[in-house]
Design a protein that fits this description.
heterodimer, A: about 160 residues, alpha+beta, Ubiquitin-like (UB roll), DNA polymerase, domain 1, 5-stranded mixed β-sheet, B: about 750 residues, Aldehyde Oxidoreductase, domain 3, Aldehyde Oxidoreductase, domain 4, 3 domains, 7-stranded mixed β-sheet, 6-stranded mixed β-sheet, about 30% helix
Chain lengths: ~160, ~750
């Protein structure tokens, strides 16, 4: 099958890959670029486990074609920590025990980071609705919501 | 003797696998590849019930890039009786028994080629009449799934083929006499629809089968020893020739306690001579893994005017999909377990129907029975004007109660959960219009089972705990805590790893809420053995008897008449000199863990019912549960919260919907909607600690009990809010609205 060459930026670095036109961005990330942090829970955009940022917009990478990454910037869970320093959300997820099995965690972190970039003082309800596109079956969301609210609070006081 | 004073146990350190999981580094089932790997896909029956007259794979095999095709002809029916149904479920033989039943599989150089190959497989079906409903499957003229299946336990003995595989009965006393003594008797019938565990990670595996008949298998499972055993049996291998490594597991809740795709991947790899990766799609997970039973239950309970139960009876019917083995037995055993009953009788019918073979789901069978029974208990309490908590307290099982399923209870925490809920602010908070509050109790046995643990003291004084149970909810943190507690070293000095099947003795599946109990106990025993060796080494160095050395605060210390004569040696010092004192230091425990402690919970929930639409909103939720001893309280809370949330989904939303054609109508997360963050409130938890005498620290399993009460608690709350008793789950808006309209309650 003929493949298309794609040039893109992933987590700040230039990246090139060949993919079939029907391949999703998620397939490309996982199978061609070994970035397996984004997970496939459904393949239909319902679970959010494959959440990534595409040109600053939160998307399900299973609903984006690999070829659509041409000339754009992709951010994945692998780019969230800076070297050995975890992003505050990653740290708070650990402190609040906001994960059990952890398979939904990358998607939640990417989505929560996107929330805090547009709203640094969300209400509990705003957090719950923003994260309604990410499914977690282990935690009942309680500790996830607390972790996000606590991160927002810390980030605000760090700025104040 | 149960230890009660702790330095580390009961604290909340960060989980050892945490950084891997927040950075995307953790490797789950589908996250691994191998050089030269092929991609596999499975062809599945579109029919609920059909004779497979022929399968022609020749056109698929001729497609360039296809390296192997397997069908029923590649799986010999095993001699081992326990594997026969698994074999038939893994690959259909004479008949396809449900929509989604595997019929053939291919391995090819790419997913694209594999997809094309599936289209080229020609299967000739003779479609047969089907049945998916439990009550319909029990009717005399229902389509029979298995020719020759006679009901086990029928009296008189069954003479005709039936979809009822087995009848189970439990109880004691004389319910006829008991009902004669009752002032009030309520009898009700209930139905529940099948649900799915809904783990976010689909089943995935990578199989590598060599020409030397040795194989390696990587997969997401709750029990890699179980996978080894089943796959070896199905492929005719010796177990030691198959090494299984468990990946990180993205949820299971019981659904990953059997095999589906693993034997298929191995068979493909054997045929192709290359590694084969096989990953289920979400559609396949819904159609062809192991959802729960659906059920139909009749409950009859009699009480005196003062609220004492005189007799209790339940008839439960669970369809468990296309093969026998529904958890109706557990339903029949657990439903009345919270009560001290003189006269109790339960009958459970294990029924087959044209649906995927059910698998365990968190306290399998118990939530369905609790829904029916706790609904009638609630109605009786209201009928005599007694607080439902008070009513339960009056009839509660206690230490010494002969349980409804036979054994007599030791120390149990049911009363403690009821008393705690009575005085909790939640119980006293006011309710608004269209709101209701429900409570319910739940019970689960918990399990121990075969367990192997090795604990290795590193040469620098750090510690490795090697265990064989996939960590599904933070159990490695608990093992590190228990090892560190025993050894007297910091938590961070211990690392717990999950070994492959070649590296440890047998371990039962991560199920039955057994891991923190059984693996924890084995870890403690292994640590104590290592401590004994370290004391011997110190004694050797000091040239005093080993009995004259004690272990305190992570050090060997001379005791008795030698006390103070030598400077205590730290674990690190002893480890560092191990080479000259006798060699490596390890502790082991290989045993069957007896003494699992049962666990009880009481749940309290407030809901609001929209009188215009019938939509139920959960406003407040509190879980009260006995944990025996919470090793890592944050993850105990997590189990309580997760069980409650899954219960909310089961109670008000989740449902397998089959069409007239016997096909599953909603095999995706859009139409099978599990609770999302905006559907739920915070879930409060109260951990009670009534120690289990069977564990050195008093641990009881906590993972499963938490899903037993919610279905009933929510039904009781909705019934109060709607002004009408809801008897059919899920309580989806149409069903609630219909019940309200029929009783003149709805606003529309």
């Amino acid at each position: 099958m003929t493949k298309t060459a794609v040039s893109t930026t992933i987590n700040g670095d230039a990246a090139e890959f060949l993919c079939e036109t029907g391949e999703t961005l998620l397939d490309v990330l996982r199978d061609r670029l070994d970035l397996t942090g984004s997970k496939e829970g459904c393949g239909t955009g319902d679970c959010g486990a494959c959440s990534v940022m595409l040109d600053g917009r939160l998307v399900c990478s299973c609903l984006v074609l690999g070829v659509e990454a041409q000339g754009r910037a992709v951010e994945t869970i692998e780019g969230m920590a800076e070297g050995e320093t975890l992003h505050p959300l990653q740290q708070k997820f650990l402190e609040h025990a906001a994960l059990q099995c952890g398979v939904c965690t990358p998607g939640f972190l990417v989505a929560a980071k996107a929330l805090l970039e547009v709203n640094d003082d969300p209400s509990e309800s705003q957090v719950r609705y923003w994260l309604a596109g990410n499914l977690c079956r282990c935690t009942g969301y309680d500790k996830i919501v607390r972790a996000v609210l606590d991160t927002a609070k810390d980030m605000r006081s760090a700025r104040a | 003797m149960i230890k009660t004073k702790f330095k580390l146990v009961g604290t909340r350190p960060l989980r050892p696998d945490g950084v891997d999981k927040v950075t995307g580094r953790a490797r789950f089932g589908a996250d691994i590849s191998a050089p030269g790997m092929l991609h596999a896909l499975i062809l599945r029956s579109p029919h609920a019930h059909a004779r497979i007259k022929s399968i022609d794979t020749s056109r698929a095999e001729k497609l360039p890039g296809v390296k192997a095709v397997v069908t029923r002809d590649d799986f010999k029916l095993p001699e081992r009786e326990d594997l026969v149904d698994i074999c038939r479920n893994v690959m259909a033989r004479e008949k396809a028994l449900y929509d989604g039943h595997a019929v053939a599989a291919v391995a090819a150089v790419s997913k694209t080629v594999a997809r094309e190959a599936l289209k080229r497989i020609q299967v000739e079906y003779q479609v047969l009449p089907h049945v998916t409903d439990v009550d319909a499957a029990m009717k005399p003229r229902a389509p029979i799934l298995h020719k020759g299946m006679r009901t086990i336990g029928a009296e008189p003995a069954a003479k005709k083929d039936s979809n009822v595989a087995q009848i189970h009965t439990f109880g004691h006393g004389d319910v006829v006499k008991g009902f004669a003594k009752a002032d009030i008797i309520i009898e009700r019938s209930f139905k529940t629809e099948a649900t799915h565990q809904g783990y976010i990670e689909p089943h995935a595996c990578l199989a590598t089968y060599g020409a030397d008949d040795r194989a390696d298998l990587w997969c997401c499972t709750q029990g890699h020893y179980m996978v080894r055993n089943a796959c070896a049996g199905l492929l005719g291998m010796e177990v030691s020739h198959l090494r299984v490594t468990a990946s990180e597991i993205g949820g299971g809740f019981g659904g990953k306690t059997t095999v589906f795709i693993e034997p298929v991947a191995l068979a493909l790899s054997r045929k192709a001579g290359k590694p084969v990766k096989l990953v289920m799609s979400r559609d396949e997970v819904f159609r062809a893994s192991g959802p729960t039973s659906s059920s139909s239950t009749d409950v009859k309970i009699g009480i005196t005017k003062k609220g004492k139960i005189t007799a209790a009876q339940a008839i439960l019917r669970y369809q468990g999909g296309a093969f026998p083995g529904s958890p109706v037995q557990f339903g029949a055993m657990t439903g009345f377990a919270p009560y001290d009953l003189e006269n109790v009788h339960t009958v459970g019918y294990d029924v087959v129907a044209n649906r995927p073979k059910q698998a365990a789901y968190r306290a399998p069978g118990a939530p369905l029975a609790a829904f029916a029974i706790e609904s009638v208990i609630d109605e009786l309490a209201h009928k005599i004007g007694m607080d439902p908590l008070e009513f339960r307290l009056k009839n509660a099982a206690r230490e010494g109660t002969k349980s409804s399923y036979g054994p007599t209870f030791g120390p149990i925490g049911l009363e403690a959960t009821l008393k705690e809920s009575k005085k909790h602010p939640h119980h006293l908070a006011p309710l608004g219009p269209n709101q209701g509050r429900g409570v319910a109790c739940g019970f689960w046995f918990n399990f121990g089972g075969q367990t192997s643990v090795s604990l290795n003291i590193g040469e620098d004084g750090t510690v490795s705990v090697v265990e064989g149970n996939p960590d599904i909810g933070g159990s490695r943190a608990s093992m590190c805590l228990m090892a560190a507690e025993e050894l007297g070293v910091p938590y961070e000095k211990v690392r717990t790893v999950i070994a492959d099947t070649a590296s440890l003795g047998y371990n039962e599946v991560t199920d039955g809420s057994r891991v923190t109990f059984a693996v924890g106990m084995a870890t403690i025993k292994a640590a104590r053995q290592a401590i004994a060796i370290m004391c011997e080494r110190a004694a050797k160095i000091w040239d005093i008897p080993a009995e004259a050395v004690v272990w305190e605060d992570g050090c060997a210390k001379p005791a008795g008449s030698n006390a103070g004569n030598f400077k205590p040696m730290t674990l690190a010092e002893i480890a560092g000199s191990a080479g000259s004192t006798g060699g490596p230091i390890s502790g082991h425990s290989e045993a069957t863990a007896d003494g699992a402690g049962v666990s009880f919970a009481t749940h309290m929930v407030d809901v609001e019912v929209d009188p215009d639409t019938g939509k139920v909103t959960v406003l407040r939720y509190t879980v009260f549960q006995d944990a025996g001893k919470a090793i890592h309280p944050a993850y105990v809370e997590g189990q309580f919260q997760g069980g409650a949330a899954q219960g909310v989904g089961w109670a008000i939303n989740e449902e397998y919907i089959y069409g007239e054609d016997g096909r599953l109508q909603n095999p995706g997360f859009l139409d099978y909607r599990i609770p999302v963050a905006s559907d739920l409130p915070m879930i409060d938890t109260v951990i009670l600690e009534i120690p289990n005498p069977g564990h050195p620290y008093g641990v009881r399993g906590v993972g499963e009990t938490s899903i037993v009460p919610p279905l009933a608690a929510i039904a009781n709350a909705v019934s109060e809010a709607a002004g009408v008793r809801l008897t059919h789950l899920p309580m989806s808006p149409p069903r609630v609205l219909k019940a309200m309209m029929e009783n003149g309650k709805g606003a529309a």
